[in-house]
Amino acid sequence: MNEPTAEGRRLNRSFGRLTLLGALLVIAGVIGLVYTGVATLTSMLLFGWLLLVGGLVGLLHAIESRGTNYFWLGVVVAALNIAAGVVVIKHPEGTAEALTMFAALLFLTGGVFRLVGSVVVRGPQMGWTLLQGAFGLLLGLLVLFDWPHSSLYVLGCFFSLALLFDGLGLIALGIGGRRIVSMVAGRRDGGQPHTGRTSTSPEGKQK
């Protein structure tokens, strides 16, 4: 009796932590949507530090595996990550402009390919594909026409939306997990046989 109860409490605490983390991510996402410029610089700095730390870890792994055929490849990849991380950290605004231009070109090419592909193939999802292509093309043009000023808010907006949706997903997971644990505990308690009482139905009596 005590072990399932302790396990249920442990699961409830774990799902509660997920819910709290999700709430923090939602708050951060909402703040980022309000201050998109700060969110853009924050995302660039985080990206730069991830590249730098990943490059250092990769370099350590390459040094540990020296003598293998992949030693120099690991060193080159690690050096490129370290160099890219240093550049991003020192020049976050320029990096944001370059990535915003890259994102605009991706939207444009993706939208054009979807539009052309939907017209050529004419599949059952033609209307939905046309809508996606038109939206991607329009978004790419809007970002491109407002560049480089768009670099101040585009990446920050994407970063904040990612935090917001990740936070909502964690909140849903935490609340749903706690409900499932409660349902399982309730069924377990309700399904246990009761002792100390006997049935007194007329069918059970001997004639």
Quick recap of the structure?
With 207 residues, this protein is an all-alpha fold. It has 6 helices and no strands.
Characterization of the model:
This protein is mainly alpha-helical. Helix 1 (2-34) packs across helix 2, helix 1 packs antiparallel against helix 6 (154-190) and helix 2 (36-64) packs across helix 4. The two termini are 40 Å apart. The chain is built from six helices and no strands. The model is unreliable at 193-207 (pLDDT under 50). It is extended and about 60 Å long.
Summing up helix and strand content along with how strands pair, one would put the structural category as mainly alpha
Fraction of helical residues = over 70%
Rough outline = extended
Give the helix tally: 6
User: How does the major sheet shape up?
Assistant: none
- Share in β-strands: under 5%
Radius of gyration: 28 Å
Low-confidence stretches: 193-207
The beta-strand count equals 0
User: Gap between N and C termini, in Å?
Assistant: 40 Å
The average pLDDT is 79
The helix/strand order is HHHHHH
Key features of this structure:
single chain; about 210 residues; mainly alpha; 6 helices; disordered C terminus
How do the helices and strands line up, and which of them pair or pack?
Elements: H1 2-34, H2 36-64, H3 71-90, H4 92-121, H5 126-145, H6 154-190
Helix pairs in contact: 1-2, 1-6, 2-3, 2-4, 2-6, 3-4, 4-5
